[in-house]
Amino acid sequence: MPAAFYAVSVLFDDEILTFNRVIGVVRRRNLETKEFGVGPSERAGALRLTFFVQADEANAERLLRQLEKTHGVRHAAVFTSAEAVAGGVTLVKVNARAHERAAVLAVLSDYQASVVDEGPETVIAVGCGQDAAALVRALEPFGVLELARSGALLRRAPRSRPVLTHSPSEAVL
Amino acid sequence: MTEILTGAQIMCRELAAAGIDVIFGYPGGAIMPFYHALPEYPGLRHILVRHEQAAAHAADGYARASGRVGVAVATSGPGATNLVTGIATAHMDSSPVLAITGQVGRSMIGRDAFQETDVIGLTLPITKYSHLVQDISELADIMRTAIAVAQEGRPGPVLVDVPKDVQNQKAPYTPPASAPRPASPADAADGIAQAAKLIAAAERPLVMIGHGVILSGAYAEVRALAEKTGMPVITTLLGISAFPESHPLHLGMPGMHGEVHVNRAIQHADVIVGIGLRFDDRVTGNVAGFAPRAKIIHLELDRAEIGKNVPVAVGIVGDARELTRQLVAAVAPRRCGPWLAEIQGFARPKVESFSGDLSPEAILGAIHETTGGECTIVTDVGQHQMWVAKHYPYRRANTHITSGGLGTMGFAVPAAMGVHLARPGELVWAISGDGGFQMNMAEMATMVQEGLSVKMAIFNNGYLGMVRQWQQFFHEKRYSSTPIWSPDYVKLADAYGIPGWRVTDRGQLGDVVSRANAEPGPALVEFVIAQEANVYPMIPPGGSLSEPIEARPAGAPAA
Hints:
The structure holds 2 protein chains of 2 kinds. Chain A is an alpha+beta fold. Chain A contains 4 helices and 11 strands; from the N terminus they run E-H-E-E-H-E-E-E-H-E-E-H-E-E-E. In chain A, strands 2-3-1-4-11 form a 5-stranded antiparallel beta sheet, with helices on one face. In chain A, strand 7 (about 115-120) and strand 8 (about 120-130) form a beta hairpin. Chain A is elongated and about 60 Å long. Chain B is of the alpha/beta class. Chain B has 3 domains: about 5-175, 3-Layer(aba) Sandwich (Rossmann fold); about 190-345, TPP-binding domain (Rossmann fold, 3-Layer(aba) Sandwich), CATH 3.40.50.1220; about 360-530, Rossmann fold (3-Layer(aba) Sandwich). Chain B has a 6-stranded parallel beta sheet with strand order 3-2-4-5-7-6, with helices on both faces. In chain B, helix 8 crosses helix 13, helix 10 packs parallel to helix 13 and helix 11 packs across helix 14. The interface of A and B includes residues 61 and 71 of A.
């Protein structure tokens, strides 16, 4: 089974040691990973971590099982990359001198990015969603000065189910 | 009832409340408040080891022999790092060990203080749970969680790191009231029914059992399963002694050094019932070639083990004893006569490991006979470990203790101290090679100071024998750095005040071993065995179970 990128979502106790354990399970394999995103979840006291990992299916499953038994992990699920829609937040500071400012604002508007701060020669904007990379590409001709992006914020593609998941009632057969 | 106690006192109270009566450790700067409090709790016997690694192995041996938590205590920095090998050993073999480390004071953490080490970071991948205590208000809870997690589900090591100033802090303390959290019973009916069907339809079924059978005490259930169905039973290295060696349905150990008929039985089986084992690579050889005809039924407490190494037809998560009990109830009685006869046909005539006078089999026979089969054998790692696994006729459950998963040389001598304390009044033999013995032989001083009656056997062949064997088979006999010099062990024992003997021929065996058994305290026997004895058969690393290297007749060139 060839390696592919899987999307992983882990819900765990909001505690740095648990976070460290979760990352350790991934780190131990030294597989290629990208787009780590972590932050508060809908549940009090629990963080959600999402990321992509390149693995074959068997390794992805072993990773999931070991995440599930990690102390402090409440839930873990693995999706194929086709079954996950990755979003994210991009904070970008771009040159916007007087003669180009209208063009910059037009690009930001095209990508539904919001201006959050304006200087005499720069603009800081926030963009959301899958188009972050395209937004940055479109701004590059003006000069991107600083860029900060969140990791992947995943949602399940419509009508998809995780390829690998586990709930306590599920029998392993 | 609430009292005001120091952190160190709370640590002691929590240990006592958990039923712990022995701890192994070594004092030092950052753990001194704990040692200051310790004499106030005479129910906690402290064993002063000579190196913290030995404390961790001794705690591990104690845990495996008693089924209770073993405790190892060390100071920060080098004390803590010296525990790491022992914690990793316990982690691989699912042993409930609580490591307690002192840490530098909170105001010094992160400043590279004297003897400061991030022991939590060092041990994260080899502990089930660990915590750096930030304040005395959370200390009791963390101790309780650690002790509970070590024993819950699949057991394993945990670590609590306590800054020195937290040990000295004072706070109100309320003793624990609640009992340990009960495990939820497995809902396994569908899987069990499916497994029973597979067993009923099988022509060549067999049972493979591992450490999980010992950890859950599923001895009677496994025996009932075998006897109701006639299925032969294979015991992995850590499953040895969970099923009587003399039972007609017992086949032996599988894998890299398994007997030919055991591995061929696996290769011919159409159903394998695996109970409380993890299909380790030393068991399976090349996974792609493992049990090619078999549907595997896996009864296992740790869900992450099911399907990890081999694909399974039926995986059932739960306690080995409970699941096996359910399976016994569900299976139809049957016999496996033709299959057992087929397996007998695979067997090779028994040959001793080598033609010399003092064979490992003869030595083990003497230990077995002189102790009436009642002692616990703790082995180290290497050739002697395999000889014991293959040839010692275990009769009692959980009397074989060894470092399996991690393969830690130096394990036997300190672990045997823990076994002795868990089973006072019983004989304990620590069997090591001349390599492994020299790793932790300083613990002889611990035995003398603490009055620990451990019988030490050294299989001395002048080599790191298992590595030499690999060099012989796979590295053109280039014996690179495997010849190993030994001191005069009898004189060495004498320097510690320990009676010692050197045995060079078979005629001395019974007498010397009996005298060692009769010593009230520790005793040492060096067995001088042939230099180039090998463990046969052997599956080459990465090879299939179908392709063993077998012993050659004496005088023939080695494989």
